[in-house]
Amino acid sequence: MMFSQLTDSLESTLKNLRGQGTLTEENVADSLREVRRAFLEADVSFNVTRDFVKAVKEKAMGKEVLTSVTPGQQIVKIIHDELVQVMGGETKELALAGKPPVGIMMVGLQGSGKTTFAAKISLYLRSKRKKKPLLVAADVYRPAAIKQLQVLGKSIGIPVYDEGEGNPVEIIQHGYEYAEKNGFDVVIYDTAGRLQIDEKLMQELEKARDAVHPEEILFVADAMIGQEAVNVAQTFFERLNFTGVCLSKMDGDARGGAALSIKKITGVPICFIGVGEKPNEIDLFHPDRMASRILG
Ligand code: GDP
């Protein structure tokens, strides 16, 4: 369903209201039902949808029905603006303000897209922010992750520090020292994920974080896993207090509701979206574009 279709259906549920008094609970009820349906279809979590609909209802109630636009357009605008606001309003760029080498630690479940994002972000920072990044291969549990990062690094000309399948906390520590000695100003750590959240993994990530104090901890979520991404995000947030979110696989047919839910539940902004497998297939996250995508 395209954005215009939701607009059309809202307009038809509200078509008799033009120029008549104010929006009331009764006459917006049908539109809110449409919004709820569109959100759940877009994989926004149930609780987040409920709170959102409530907020929109409060904003719409008592608004005068304008003569210049249809009531449908009016409520679509209220919804759109609220969505943009909940998703953070503006695009968040990584600050990278600390003493170099500034650390960026990638965390998330196995298969979420961490290794790919590590390479994408290194390329992005080199070409758009004129940085000199080092990649550190510390995903020692997933077969082939180290090799994958080396291949990606080579393809974009960004050096990769690795020690094979050693102790990940030590690799991260050594990677930091290597970056410091060799004049890299950003160091991006690819860490291990599991298929499910796992206590040992969390403790290891905490240890790695405490060893190198990365400026940013970026949680990577696969947009295709929808609502489940929210539970995973919540657990990672409780343990690691990540500072940004990367949403992979937005080139698929995911509507992106996970973006809204993760932002709403953790308060942490989404920084990047992945739009393909190649290192240059990365975009900054734009709340207004995502709002249109979620509304469908
Ligand atoms: P990791 O286990 O978290 O390191 O995940 P990977 O980076 O290996 O990604 C898992 C799979 O998803 C790989 O086959 C990637 O090529 C693919 N992938 C990652 N990001 C994207 C994306 O934005 N779009 C698409 N289509 N595929 C992606």
From TrEMBL:
<comment type="subunit">
    <text>Part of the signal recognition particle protein translocation system, which is composed of SRP and FtsY.</text>
</comment>
<feature type="domain" description="SRP54-type proteins GTP-binding">
    <location>
        <begin position="269"/>
        <end position="282"/>
    </location>
</feature>
<keyword id="KW-0378">Hydrolase</keyword>
<comment type="similarity">
    <text>Belongs to the GTP-binding SRP family. SRP54 subfamily.</text>
</comment>
<keyword id="KW-0694">RNA-binding</keyword>
<keyword id="KW-0963">Cytoplasm</keyword>
<comment type="function">
    <text>Involved in targeting and insertion of nascent membrane proteins into the cytoplasmic membrane. Binds to the hydrophobic signal sequence of the ribosome-nascent chain (RNC) as it emerges from the ribosomes. The SRP-RNC complex is then targeted to the cytoplasmic membrane where it interacts with the SRP receptor FtsY.</text>
</comment>
<keyword id="KW-0547">Nucleotide-binding</keyword>
<keyword id="KW-0687">Ribonucleoprotein</keyword>
<feature type="binding site">
    <location>
        <begin position="248"/>
        <end position="251"/>
    </location>
    <ligand>
        <name>GTP</name>
    </ligand>
</feature>
<feature type="binding site">
    <location>
        <begin position="190"/>
        <end position="194"/>
    </location>
    <ligand>
        <name>GTP</name>
    </ligand>
</feature>
<keyword id="KW-0733">Signal recognition particle</keyword>
<keyword id="KW-0342">GTP-binding</keyword>
<protein>
    <recommendedName>
        <fullName>Signal recognition particle protein</fullName>
        <ecNumber>3.6.5.4</ecNumber>
    </recommendedName>
</protein>
<feature type="binding site">
    <location>
        <begin position="108"/>
        <end position="115"/>
    </location>
    <ligand>
        <name>GTP</name>
    </ligand>
</feature>
